[in-house]
Predict the structure of Heme chaperone HemW.
Amino acid sequence: MDATAALYIHIPFCVRKCRYCAFTSWDDAPLGTDEYAALLLREMGLRAGVLAHPLGAATLYLGGGTPSLLEPRLVGSIIDGAERLFRLHPAAEVTLEANPGTVTAASLAGYRAAGVNRLSLGVQSLDDGMLERLGRLHTARQAREAFALARRAGFDNIGIDLIHGLPGQDLSHWREQLRAAVELRPDHISAYGLTVEEGTPLARLEEEGVLALPDEEDAAAMFEETAEILAPAGYEQYEIANFALPGRRSRHNQVYWQRGNYLGFGAGAHSFLREPFPGLRWRSPDDLGAYGSSLAAGTVPEIDRTPLAVGDARAEWLFLGLRMLDGVEEERFREEFGVPLAEIHGPALEGLLAAGLLVREGGRLRLSRRGVILSNRVFGAFL
C-alpha cells in the first residue's frame, strides 16, 4: 500500500451560512470549538489505530465551514496530533481556509506560528454587491486587508477563491474581478463557476424564478476569459479551475485528482484509500450528535463504507486525472488496472481525439483547449 495520505480536517462552524453553500456547516452548532477539536483528535487517534497499514502524511488541509473561527492554539493542537499520529512530514503543506473578516494580525501570526504555511482566503468576489448577493459577511475592502495582514504575518503562499457566473454578472464585470485579483498577486487562484446546489437559499430563489443568472453562453465566455487574463499575468492553469504561480500548485488537491490516499476527519468529511484494490470510500456522519456519540462509544464515526467496482475506479482514474492539464499517462493506466486503456475505452478515446477534445502526445492524454471548455462532455464519455 502507498505509505502516504493527505489529511483533511473539516471545521463545520460559520458565523452565517452563505446562500450558495451546501457543505456540512452550521452557524448555530450545538458544541463549541474546544469540544469539537477534542473530538477531532479522538477520531484521528481511533482511525490511526484501525488502519491496516500505517500511513504518513505529506499534506494537511483544514477546510470548512470557517476554520479561521478556531483559535490558533486549537489549530496547533490539530497539527500536533497529525504529527504524532500520522507522521506529518516536517516539510508538509499545511493549509488553513480563512474568511476575510474572521482574521486579525494576531490570529494570522498565531496560525503561522502553529505550523500553517499556506492560507486559502475565501474572497469569492471583490465587489460588495456580489458579496451581498452570495450572503458573504465580509466586504471587498476586508478581503484586501486580510490578504495584506497575511503577507505581513509571514505567509508567502496564499491562495484566493473567486466565483464567476454570479447573479447579475456579465463578462466585463468578471474581467474587472480577475484584474483586481491579479493586482493582489496571490500565489494561487481558484476560479469556480457558481453551482446552485439543491436545498440552498439560491436554489429556492431559482425555483421562484427570481435568480438572474448569466446564460450558458455568457458563463462559458467567463470561463474562457479566466485563462486569457491570468496566463499573461504568470498564472499557470494546471487544473480546470485552478491557477498557480510557478511552484505554487496545491499539493493537497493534486492528491484528489491523482487518486491518492486521503483521510478525512470531522463531521461530513470523506476518505479514500487505494487499497484494498481498486479502492475504498467512506465518510463521517454529517450530524454532529451521531458523530460525537460514535466517538464517545470508542468507535470510528464511519458511514457509507463502499468498496469501488473496477469499472468505476477506471472511469474515476480518467476523469479525475484529466481535470489536470498535464493529463494522464496511458502506461500508468495499464500498470494500475492490468489492461491497456484502449482496450477498455478505445471507442470513447478515438471519438474524443477525432472531435479535438483530447490530445495524445508522448504516451499522455490531455484535454485540448476546447476540451477544457467542454470537459463535462469528455468525462461523461467514460461513465
